[in-house]
Design a protein that fits this description.
single chain; 754 residues; alpha+beta; Deoxyribonuclease I, Chain A; 6-stranded mixed sheet; 31% helix; elongated
Length: 754
């Protein structure tokens, strides 16, 4: 629709999309409105249903006459309305199909919105709109009114008005034990929109891996209860889970014998020191523990810059301290009713000494405040009670949401120019037909081997990109289905409504939808895990992949270092790994004399590899391990194995050409190296080893050459050799050694082992 013009004639009828269903199937231009699109009515006959409504604030002149039909008596309050129907014949040009107040939707202007839809703001000016007013006749009467839209006023939205507001979002909860709630926490933590999750009283130990309850989306820092920080063996423990989009690391400065943890998060504009502490009841009066904790706080705050922030979450188990909300919304201690011990007084003095202010005002069900949130700048954050808890709440400890007014960096994923192809869904018969249609006369003309390999790769990849479908995005989570996604969408909508309204009705609706979503999500996850357990016999690789995801952290840390050099971007990390793993490669080229010397030890009479036949290639491809992962040349081994019948001829030409020219192709010397974590600090590049992915064609040639060399040299190898020998290993060596020992012992002979 174009801009509304007050001089345009008003159409006689307005077809409401909500009540006219038959016209939507007609051909014509479309007009989008809210959740659907309406089409212009084509010429023909239509039945119109009109539902007219008049708000209370309309002037009396617009109300229907007093002698209106008694069958459709108007209510005295609320909205006035009637429903009528008639048959209308529409001639060309068709009547305009438009919703109520069309200028607000169709007029061009800046777009805005939240959630899943965008809306357009109406540009200021005068607009015509049509309202339907009930009349005495059975047909609807329409009146034209003019609306004056003032210039838009853009107000700054409060951070607490919307749960999806910008800023750094921190979630805090005292979970009262996480050992029996691992699956529940995993399901809620992997789908929440919190940047940081802080938990106290986790009750974890070293036998529980962090990947079990946080997946691969968070970097988990823990301080579990042990014999060094408590005389008890169970209970206690704190945890901080930081999104991997943030650059975080452990703060090494604090030294304390309490259950305490400090991390440091580097942001674009400032750094944030985040700490959490749990002071068990048996140590709340321990002056040594209190002094060590205060020293840790001082060590952190002393290293802060002017704009840096410091946050401390703590459960200090000080029931004698009573907090009250002051006039400035910042809680203060009720000195009259509080019972402050000596250790508690020293603790409060330490907070004041380090310029920390307690900002938590969310009381529990008993109108008490047990969890403290201490910050060095109370104006930089906003604290509210969480709309939804990740785990069942304890009556003494409400869940908290803290929003920090900082810019969260957006992490972009580097996507290569070559698309990711899904060889699992590839049609290998079509690939074989495409490969058979390629003209290989260029290879038969004996070109340079590097040019021949380049021609081969281009021809094969051209057919692959044309036939193999692209890889579908992974379903997240893996156990999801359309019903779960629909429930999640309903839950998000209800959460937005509750965050805006903050009324009991919207909260009850959100709680009911959230309960239904979590129940169904838990059911799907349990069914998914039971299927994974059943794969132990049917598909062991898939089973162990699931097991490793629960006990190993995926991906690389945000910040990594090698010596004094640090890197946070992908390019910087690749540079660090290249420097660390460069000793695995060298550019040394053997001279002709060295090559001749090496060949002099080769038994020339037994070695005959001047001609490579199709039988050699077929045997080598059968030995090749099938894989869907592509190498540097973009050709996976599964293509060679599934299309071997049509690729044997060009491969035979390439291998023979390489041997005749005594040149190994340069592109086959390239490899893709992947870092694999070994042990130690995951941020240290030295704690990774590299594995390489080679070209599949080069592997085939290496197998052929290796088999020929082994056949000519195997009679020179002693029978005691078990390493690097086909069908032998350390197991066969131990079995042979054990048999020799038992045989000599049974014969009474002497046997010695070194």
């Amino acid at each position: 629709m174009g801009d509304p013009n007050p001089l345009d004639p008003v159409p006689q009828f307005i077809l409401r999309r909500n009540y006219v269903s038959c016209h939507q199937s007609r051909s014509g231009a479309t007009l989008e409105f809210e959740e659907g699109a309406s089409q212009l009515s084509s010429s023909g006959k239509y039945t119109i249903f009109s539902n007219s409504s008049i708000p209370d604030q309309l002037p009396c002149s617009s109300l229907p006459p007093a002698d209106f039909s008694p069958d459709t008596a108007l209510p005295t309050s609320g909205t006035l309305g009637c429903t009528s129907s008639r048959t209308m014949e529409v001639s060309d040009p068709p009547a305009v199909v438009e919703p109520f107040l069309p200028a607000f939707i169709s007029h061009p202007g800046p777009t805005g919105g939240s959630g899943e839809r965008d809306f357009q703001n109406a540009t200021h000016g005068k607009y015509n709109f049509v309202i339907s007013v009930p009349s005495a006749d059975p047909y609807c009467t329409f009146s034209l009114r003019q609306l004056d839209v003032p210039p838009p006023v853009f107000a700054e939205r409060s951070l607490a008005a919307d749960n999806h507001s910008s800023g750094l979002r921190i979630y805090y909860q005292n979970v009262r034990g996480l050992r029996t709630k691992i699956d529940d926490f995993f399901l809620t933590a992997t789908e929440c929109d919190h940047n940081i999750i802080v938990l106290t009283e986790t009750w974890l130990d070293d036998h529980i891996d962090s990947a079990q309850f946080c997946g691969s989306l968070f970097t988990v820092y823990r301080c579990d209860r042990n014999r060094h920080n408590s005389c008890k063996s169970r209970g206690g423990g704190v945890l901080i889970a930081v999104s991997k989009r943030l650059n975080s690391c452990v703060d090494p400065a604090p030294i304390s014998d309490t259950i305490e943890l400090w991390i440091r998060i580097s942001m674009p504009t400032r750094s944030i020191s985040l700490g959490v502490v749990y002071l068990p009841p048996d140590r709340r009066s321990d002056m040594t523990a209190v002094k060590n904790h205060i020293n840790s706080i001082s060590s952190v705050t002393s290293r802060l810059d002017q704009n840096d922030l410091s946050f401390l979450f703590g459960d200090y188990n000080q029931p004698g301290v009573i907090w009250k909300r002051g006039s400035d919304s910042i809680p203060s201690i009720d000195l009259i009713h509080s019972r402050i011990s000596v250790a508690c007084s020293a603790l409060l003095d330490g907070f004041s000494l380090n310029n920390l202010t307690q900002v938590n005002h969310a009381t529990n069900d008993y109108d008490r405040l047990l969890d403290l949130v201490l910050v060095n700048d109370a104006t930089s954050c906003e604290l509210t009670e969480a709309s939804e808890s990740l785990l069942p709440l304890d009556t003494n400890h409400p869940a908290l949401n803290i929003t920090i007014d900082v810019t969260v960096p957006v992490q972009f994923e580097d996507i290569g120019d070559v698309p990711c192809l899904d060889f699992c869904r590839a049609d290998f018969e079509s690939l074989s037909i495409a490969f058979s249609c390629i003209d290989w006369q260029f290879l038969e003309s004996s070109p340079p081997i590097n040019d021949a390999v380049e021609y081969f790769n281009c021809a094969i990849n051209s057919a692959i990109y044309r036939i193999v479908p692209p890889r579908r995005p992974l379903r997240k989570p893996a156990w999801s289905n359309p019903r779960l996604r629909h429930l999640k969408k309903q839950r998000s909508t209800a959460l937005r409504h509750y965050c805006k309204a903050r009324c009991p009705i919207s909260k009850h609706r959100f709680n009911e939808i959230s309960k239904l979503y979590r129940k169904y999500n838990r059911f799907l996850y349990k069914r998914y895990t039971s299927r994974m357990q059943g794969n132990l016999r049917r598909n062991p690789r898939l089973f162990w992949s699931f097991v490793n995801s629960k006990r190993k952290e995926d991906g690389l840390p945000v910040d990594m270092f090698l010596g004094d050099c640090h890197g946070s971007t992908l390019l910087e990390k690749c540079t660090l790994f290249a420097r660390s793993l460069q000793h695995n490669f060298h550019e040394h080229t053997a001279s002709d004399a060295q090559v001749d010397t090496a060949l002099s030890y080769l038994p020339r009479d037994d070695f005959n590899l001047l001609e490579i036949t199709s039988r050699h290639i077929t045997t080598a491809i059968d030995k090749l391990k099938s894989s869907f992962a592509v190498g540097p040349d973009g050709i996976p081994s599964c293509v060679l194995k599934r299309c071997a019948s049509v690729l044997i001829h060009p491969l035979c030409l390439l291998f023979s050409l390489s041997l005749r020219q005594r040149v190994f192709p340069s592109s086959w010397k390239s490899s893709i190296m992947f870092p694999v974590y070994k042990k130690g600090d995951r941020r240290d590049v030295k704690n990774y080893r590299g594995i390489t992915s080679l070209c599949a064609c080069s592997k085939v040639m290496e197998i052929i050459v290796n088999d020929a060399l082994f056949d000519s040299c195997k009679h020179y190898i002693t029978s005691d050799q078990h390493g690097f020998y086909p069908k032998r290993s350390i197991t066969t060596k131990l079995a042979e050694f054990s048999s020799t020992c038992l045989r000599n012992m049974s014969n009474g002979a002497q046997i010695d082992a070194v």
